[in-house]
Amino acid sequence: MLKLVCEWCSSSKVKSISDSVFWELPDGTRAIEISETPTLSCPDCSMIYQTEAIIKEIEDQLFLIDCQQIGKVIPYEELMKIPRLLKRNYFDFSS
User: Fold this and answer.
1) pLDDT-flagged residues of the chain (< 50)
2) Which of 18, 42, 56, 62 has minimal Cβ neighbours within 10 Å of its Cβ?
3) What share of the chain is helix, strand, coil (3-state, %, to 5)?
């Protein structure tokens, strides 16, 4: 099992939790709340954050779905289950 380390202070006490995050839609028309998002919480530095992998998953999903069908609040798992209009983000050249 991979040991979690806080990206901010390098503490080994970081814990995996679920939390709400607020995200601006790719078209900039509004922001939504994504509840129950996989999140890391560090008791030593008080940072609460998402990993780069979770951030990329959310951004790719929001870019590839019809965001008009999303209400003001959506659970993370439900967001990830929305069918994509494209198979992948063809504008992401990072990988």
Assistant:
1) none
2) 18
3) 25, 25, 50
